[in-house]
Write a structure and sequence with these properties.
The chain has a six-stranded parallel sheet, sandwiched between helices. It has a six-stranded mixed sheet with strand order 6-5-4-9-12-13, with helices on both faces. The chain is an alpha/beta fold. Strand 10 and strand 11 form a beta hairpin. The chain is globular, with a radius of gyration of 22 Å. Helix content is 32%, strand content 27%. The protein has 14 helices and 20 strands.
Length: 431
């Protein structure tokens, strides 16, 4: 009897790549649940401003004389900032705040600076023309202020932040909540740390996540997240507006208010929206980095999702365009990637947090990569990474998804296959 075949399709940026496999070999498809979008996003945002979670309405928190800073993410994130900003700015103006009192700081973290075209696409042309807009640059030492340290358990976290945050009276943050491999979930206080912080602060919180016994994906109470929130509190984050979006990049809900309480509410929603059922571990997991495709630094989130779905000694086939290559602002990443998991952890534990030449932020990425590649063999389909990049990552390159699948099935003729079409933001859940 002829074996029935199944066509596997996963995103590759704006395109789709395909492979044909035996239908009975596929044990999960990793599809997110259907979640209907909000009928009127702007109306819901407005309602949340007057009925927030964990604090008074925004109009009662902001004074007419306040200098206000709105923190927004960069182009590595998908929050519909240009739809939310007009609602927020109009709300503030209706309650006596003039446009000249409001500024925007783009929270780039340790990412590259955005182009003017990218900024306009992020905030919208009207807002771009109306408000003063600045970008955080963690490499500009003269722009960074030292606010001492905060403690999470035995860990002391240096608080280094963009000086502009100290020159305003009220800080709001916009963001989106998805599962995150260090912070448990994105959103909330992450708009401050790493968004507008110095390298030592980001190194401290993120290396904490890397050194945990398990990757804290979906754990909103882990030490990395708690450190982020201690820093955000010290800096003075007063209010957040966070979205949760479905697989079609449509907003299904909005939370607003206190940056911890509202975030936790949003994390519960995100767990339902991004959760995918994993009935059993696969011998072979095919994962796309979508929607985190800009570079490997972002795309690796797909590998983290795959890590939770594949057997020890199995194979991960990683599909990602990595349009802008391996990384930005982190040349030390290549050195950290050469370490094994144990070596990387040992070196990181003995590295001083403010030794920026060591780049512990890159160590976080590299240690996570080592953890995954020591669990499973990784094959990659990518046009954006050079052979040198792929070699230092410890992967094997294939030109097509079908070629990678055929290679692995020679090793595992009866291997069970799992598929994660949106590895960049899904949350694998073992039932």
């Amino acid at each position: 009897m002829k074996c029935q075949m199944k066509l596997i399709e996963v995103p590759y940026g704006n395109e789709t790549v395909r492979a044909s496999v035996s239908a009975d070999s596929v044990i999960f498809n990793g599809t997110m649940p259907e979640c209907s979008p909000l009928a009127d996003l702007e109306a819901v945002v407005l309602a949340r401003l007057d009925c927030p979670t964990g604090c008074k309405p925004l109009k009662e928190l902001v004074s007419q004389s306040d200098k206000i800073m709105i923190l927004v993410e960069d182009n590595t994130r998908q929050t519909p900032v240009k739809r939310i900003l007009p609602v927020l700015i109009n709300y503030l103006e209706q309650h006596g705040v003039k446009a000249g009192q409001i500024e925007i700081l783009i929270a780039t973290g340790t990412h590259r600076i955005m182009t003017e075209e990218e900024i306009i696409e992020k905030v919208g042309l009207d807002v771009f023309r109306k408000l003063r807009i600045y970008q955080h640059d963690c490499t500009e030492k003269n722009d960074i202020a030292d606010l001492g340290t905060v403690a999470v358990g035995p860990n002391k976290i240096p608080v280094q932040v963009n000086k502009r945050a100290l020159a305003v009276d009220f800080i709001l943050g916009l963001g989106n909540i998805v599962p995150h491999c260090d912070a448990g979930y994105s959103g909330g206080g992450k708009i401050v740390q790493p968004g507008i912080c110095g390298i030592a602060t980001t190194a401290s919180t993120h290396i904490t996540g890397a050194l945990l016994e398990e990757i804290p994906l979906g754990d909103a109470e882990n030490p990395c997240r708690l450190g982020i929130e201690k820093v955000a509190e010290r800096v003075g984050l007063r209010f957040i507006i966070n979205t949760v979006m479905n697989a079609n990049q449509e907003v299904v809900d909005v939370v607003a208010g206190d940056f911890v309480t509202a975030h936790r509410e949003g994390a519960k929603i995100a767990a339902k929206v991004y959760g995918v059922d994993i009935p059993a571990l696969a011998d072979i997991t095919i994962v796309s980095s979508h929607p985190c495709n800009i570079d490997y630094w972002q795309a690796m989130k797909g590998l983290v999702a795959a890590y939770f779905t594949v057997k020890n000694g199995g194979y991960i086939i990683f599909v990602s365009p990595c349009y802008e290559g391996l990384e930005h602002n982190h040349p030390k990443l290549r050195e950290w990637l050469k370490y094994s998991y144990k070596e990387g952890c040992d070196v990181a534990r003995h590295t001083v947090l403010d030794d920026e030449s060591s780049d512990l932020v890159a160590a976080d990425i590299a240690i996570c990569n080592a953890r995954i590649r020591e669990k499973a063999n990784i094959l990659i389909v990518s046009d954006g990474l050079s052979q040198e990049d792929i070699g230092v990552l410890g992967y094997a390159k294939f030109d097509t998804l079908q070629a990678a699948v055929d290679y692995v099935l020679q090793k595992f003729p009866n291997g069970k296959i799992g598929v994660l079409p949106r590895g960049g933001d899904c949350l694998p859940i073992r039932r």
